[in-house]
C-alpha cells in the first residue's frame, strides 16, 4: 500500500478495485466509478478504502487523470462523481447542462492551497502578486512592468543566473487555477517544465537551487520552503487560518461535482461515498493528508445540497476550531 501511495503522488492515473474482507449488516453491492483530480487522488483512495471496509460487495474504481477529465466523464455519464481541484469552467458546465438538462451539483469537501516553493537554500521569503506573474507568465496581465527571468532582478546574489520554472501539466486543475489566480488568466512561459504531479514539482525544486515552482500544499518536503504572497509588508503565508478566511490569495476549495438529477436519489454506492466524505470520519482523512478539513456547520450545508441526512448531535470536526 505504501508503494501504491507513492505512485499516486508521482503519476496522474490511479485505477483500483477494493474488495475487503468484512462489511456492514446493510451491505451495498455493485460498482462505483469516479474520474478527476490527481491532487485528490490519495484522498479518494483513503475514502475508497474506508467505504470498502464497510461494504465488501462494492467495487470501487477511481481514475485520477486530472481535473479536466472530470467534466468529460460526468457529461458522458461514465461517472456520477468527479473530484476537481478547481471550479468547472463555464463551457464545461454548459456542456453538462446541454447533455443532461440540469446543473451539476458542486460540493466542497475540504480546503487546500497552491503554494509557491523555492529550494531550501534560497533566501527569498515572499513575492508580490505582480512579481509572481512576471516570473511565470510572458503576458504580465497582473500589472508587472517587466518580465523577471533572473534571480538578481529580485535582489538576490544567490542563487545566481536564470530562474528555472516548474509547474503542472495542462490537464491538471492546479495548472488551470494557478493560471487564473496567479497569472490573471495570462499565458505561461514556454520555459515552464511541466510535471505530472505536485510531488514531482517539489522534488525538482528541492534538487535545484535555482528553481521555483507551484504545487499543492500537502506535498511539501524539507527540501523546499513556501513563499508568502502579497504586497510588500503585507504578504500572507499559507496556513489553516489563512485558507479558512481566504486571506492567502492562492487558497482553493477541494470539490466534488456530482451528477445528481433533481428529485431523484443517487444510487446507493455514490450516496454511501458522499455520506462518508461529508462526515467527521471522512474529514479526519482530509486533515491527516495535510489539507484543511471543513467544520461541521459547513459539512451540514454540503450535505443539504445532496439531500443527505444531518449528523444529529456532533461535537466537532477536524479543523473546526
From TrEMBL:
Keywords: Signal. InterPro entries: PBP_domain, Phosphate_ABC_transporter. Gene3D superfamilies: Periplasmic binding protein-like II. This is Phosphate transport system substrate-binding protein. Pfam families: PBP_like_2. The gene is pstS. Residues 1-25 form the signal peptide. Residues 28-269 form the PBP domain.
Amino acid at each position: 500500500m505504501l508503494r501504491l501511495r507513492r505512485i499516486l503522488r508521482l503519476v496522474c492515473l490511479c485505477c483500483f478495485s477494493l474488495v475487503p474482507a468484512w462489511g456492514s449488516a446493510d451491505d451495498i453491492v455493485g460498482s462505483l466509478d469516479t474520474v478527476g483530480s490527481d491532487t485528490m487522488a490519495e484522498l479518494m483512495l483513503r475514502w475508497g478504502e474506508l467505504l470498502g471496509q464497510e461494504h465488501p460487495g462494492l467495487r470501487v474504481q477511481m481514475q485520477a487523470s486530472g481535473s479536466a477529465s472530470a467534466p468529460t466523464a460526468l457529461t458522458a455519464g461514465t461517472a456520477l462523481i468527479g473530484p476537481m481541484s478547481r471550479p468547472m469552467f463555464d463551457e464545461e458546465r454548459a456542456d453538462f447542462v446541454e447533455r443532461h438538462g440540469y446543473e451539476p451539483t458542486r460540493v466542497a469537501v475540504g480546503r487546500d492551497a497552491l503554494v509557491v516553493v523555492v529550494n531550501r537554500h534560497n533566501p527569498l521569503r515572499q513575492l508580490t502578486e505582480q512579481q509572481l506573474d512576471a516570473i511565470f507568465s510572458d503576458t504580465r496581465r497582473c500589472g508587472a512592468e517587466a518580465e523577471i527571468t533572473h534571480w538578481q532582478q529580485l535582489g538576490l546574489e544567490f542563487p545566481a543566473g536564470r530562474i528555472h520554472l516548474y509547474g503542472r501539466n495542462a490537464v491538471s486543475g492546479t495548472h488551470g487555477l494557478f493560471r487564473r489566480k496567479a497569472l490573471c488568466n495570462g499565458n505561461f512561459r514556454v520555459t515552464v517544465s511541466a510535471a505530472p504531479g505536485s510531488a514531482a514539482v517539489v522534488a525538482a525544486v528541492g534538487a535545484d537551487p535555482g528553481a521555483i515552482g507551484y504545487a499543492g500544499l500537502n506535498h511539501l518536503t524539507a527540501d523546499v520552503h513556501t513563499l508568502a504572497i502579497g504586497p510588500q509588508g503585507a504578504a500572507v503565508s499559507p496556513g489553516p487560518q489563512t485558507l479558512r478566511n481566504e486571506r492567502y490569495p492562492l487558497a482553493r476549495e477541494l470539490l466534488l461535482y456530482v451528477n445528481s438529477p433533481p428529485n431523484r436519489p443517487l444510487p446507493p454506492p455514490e450516496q454511501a461515498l458522499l455520506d462518508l466524505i461529508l462526515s467527521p470520519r471522512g474529514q479526519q482523512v482530509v486533515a491527516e493528508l495535510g489539507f484543511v478539513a471543513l467544520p461541521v456547520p459547513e459539512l451540514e450545508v454540503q450535505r443539504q445540497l445532496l439531500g443527505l441526512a444531518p449528523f444529529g448531535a456532533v461535537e466537532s470536526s477536524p479543523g473546526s476550531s
